[in-house]
Amino acid sequence: EKPYKCDLCDYSAARKRSLAAHLRKHTGEKPYKCDICDYSAARKSCLDQHMTTHDDEALRV
């Protein structure tokens, strides 16, 4: 069951936090900021993935 519905599209979610993350697609909000560069993301998992690029850079130096 997916009781949490987006008011702006047909998306629905089982968890309230999933709906909150989805709503950032509509608002453009990107609260997760990289401490090393100017990258920002709407989801923490995207920032975590981005951070691996900096790990790779450190290994090449």
From TrEMBL:
One of its GO terms (molecular function) is zinc ion binding. Keywords: DNA-binding, Metal-binding, Nucleus, Repeat, Zinc, Zinc-finger. It holds the Pfam family zf-C2H2. InterPro entries: Znf-C2H2_CTCF, Znf_C2H2_sf, Znf_C2H2_type. One of its GO terms (biological process) is regulation of gene expression. It is found in: Nucleus. Residues 4-31, 32-59 form the C2H2-type domain. Its main location: nucleus. Coiled coil: none annotated. One of its GO terms (cellular component) is nucleus. This is C2H2-type domain-containing protein. It comes from Branchiostoma floridae (Florida lancelet).
